[in-house]
Amino acid sequence: MQDLRVGSGPTPKVGQTVVVDWDGYTIGYYGRIFEARNKTKGGSFEGNDKDFFKFRVGSDEVIQAFEEAVSGMAPGGIRRIIVPPELGYPENDFNRKGPRPTTFSGQRALDFVLRNQGLIDKTLLFDIELLKIILN
Asked: What's the pTM value of the predicted model, to 2 decimals?
């Protein structure tokens, strides 16, 4: 886990909803991107909350590594995490827990890596930005 930018303010508590932006890469499959920040926004983090990924901390909605990374972040922070398969998607299925790729090509790339048992390293890399904490 590496902080690319440290945020400021409180960190999210269990039960609070967080809004994040994220990139995902397959390390063992030529570093292929399976999710990238919305390019139509020019790489900036402007946009409506509905454009971003939201989840409730402690709700078991996301993979363990993602949850652990976000729970220690403050708004405005960007964190890079390397996710070994055991902290990644359960049963190699991104439909069981988030975050999920939002494009068909991203889903296909991630699915290809997760389902090729023993042939491809399933280690993933995520860059996560915590945009805001929604007080419930």
From this structure: 0.88
